[in-house]
Amino acid sequence: MNTDPRHSAPPTINGRYLGSLGLFAGLDMGTLDRLAAALPVELVQVGKTIVEEGELAQELFVVLSGELEVVKDADGRPVRIAMLGPGDWFGEMTLIDVQPRSATVRAVASTHVMRMHARHVDELLYRVAPKAYALFVMNIARELSRRLRVVDGALAQFRASVRE
Question: How far apart are the C-alpha atoms of 108 and 106, rounded to whole Å?
């Protein structure tokens, strides 16, 4: 029996669990319970692509269990740029800027994800819980800022190594 938490069944999805994730931090329990009841959970098999770089979409995904790789095309070659596990999320950029997907994400282990479409954001947050909507968008902004800082650091290190 595999006891590796990356390969286990998804956690019970309820408001308390969602509130423990950075994406939903600070949202009230009523909103969290509403989201938990409405957002679909899917099992993604090893090797399956969840999102494809360049495709148009308006949904984000929360990783509940398993492991995913984020791959970016670099002159026709796939380059792994990140690994994602339980509690991570991806796809939020399509909700913010309504542009094509910036990378491909595929499962490297059997993975449970929760899907949140722009329609869910509109119907379950924006229209009924404006404060929760504002917190949700701020949580996305914080994560995007964190990711930008990481990339800035990596770029600075790369530039410094090229100069030497």
Answer: 7
